[in-house]
Amino acid sequence: MSRYVGAIDQGTTSSRFIVFDKGGNIVSVAQKEHRQIYPKPGWVEHDPLEIMANTNEVIGAALARANLTATDLVAVGITNQRETTLLWDRKTGQPLCNALVWMDTRTDQLVQRFTRDGGQDRFRAKTGLPLATYFSGLKLLWILENVEGARAKAEAGDALFGTIDSWMAWNLTGGVNGGIHLTDVTNASRTMLIDLATCDWDETMLGHFNIPRACLPKIVPSSAVYGEIHTAPLRGTSLAGILGDQQAALVGQTCFSPGEAKNTYGTGSFMLMNTGTEPVQSKAGLLTTLAYQFGDEKPHYALEGAIAITGALVQWLRDNLKLFDVAPQIEPLAASVEENGDVYIVPAFSGLYAPYWKDDARGVIAGLTRYATRAHLARAALESTAYQVRDVVEAMQADSGITLAALKTDGGMVANELLMQFQSDILDAPVVRPKMTETTALGAAYAAGLAVGYWANVEDLRANWGIDKTWEPKMSGERRDHHYKSWKKAVQRSFAWVD
Prior knowledge:
499 residues, 7-stranded mixed β-sheet
């Protein structure tokens, strides 16, 4: 009898397979890293064949560790690094080139080409996205314009476009022998090629970018039975869920009501707020994106704020300034002083993302006096993460009209309790750390399990969600206002540094 649900978590640096039980607990896990390929400055690639091989390897390893087989799994879901783009030959299964990773910037000239006639936001009303190198539609156009034979094959339907979810689903369901070519609404919403209102490929956008419809996958809900997996060791299991990684974390955190939000604290940070069944256009520098769609239900939308540098600032203090030896040492160092000494760090190492979108900004340390010590710098670094999150929260509240009730957190930095308390203080809202921190993979498992009735409804998922710890605001309003006003002054000092 099938007792568990599996999740493929295909990330930027590694692939994992995790088996969950009905309570949302981890039964088994295996992980393997893949190569990061840098052919030129600003270019970042992955080998899709390596990713697929690694994925099959970790699936086998995770099942073996728990003495499980495919028959023990009721369904499998996929969560993936978003926007990473590839084009492969339908007949041979071979990629036409390496995958262009989400952070790859080779499409900067294409961005300039389309920005000249109408500005960065010319397609935002329809797609929810500004023109940027981030999104996958322009990556596909680059491949069509620069890889020999790519356009002819794509126009004939002999080359298939996809983000990593599409590549994996096609291979798992048969590949050249009838593999299913699809993507879910969340990944499709990151292409700049769909109309947010219809959740379908938009002919106008395809015309602007000169993208042939014949190469595009079918857009499907995030939770539905797509087909049967044909590859060992999952042969016979249903593929039943797909979510982009940040949306998967939103589902894993059970943020199913408008106003519920999660923030993932990693190298950078990504906050998503559920805004309900109508897309909310951002006027404050956020992205409008699909949150999820379960079966035949209406799709849910989200506002997203992307922050470039959070955990990476801690790494910089460790590696470049040598303030401590290992990252966890920042917490006791920062806690050794009661205040930040009026020091503020704006980590605009390569510009500022949401909600400012200032490419010309650079990092600043403001408010230095002879009083400041390395402990004050450590504290200011942690606080800068919390200030940046508040910037995004305020933008979300302005756009949505929804007041944040509580912030659900996940990611590596949530172990830092000093940061979590300061986050609550500066937001003047509760900050909640869940018991299960593998929320991305859990979200993919939830999507798959819902599709086959393993979980009856989202209330079953909410019942699984448990709190590890909650931080309540303790800071006075006067002190909160002083800190945030000073932060905003420091941010202003970082603007227009690059001519």
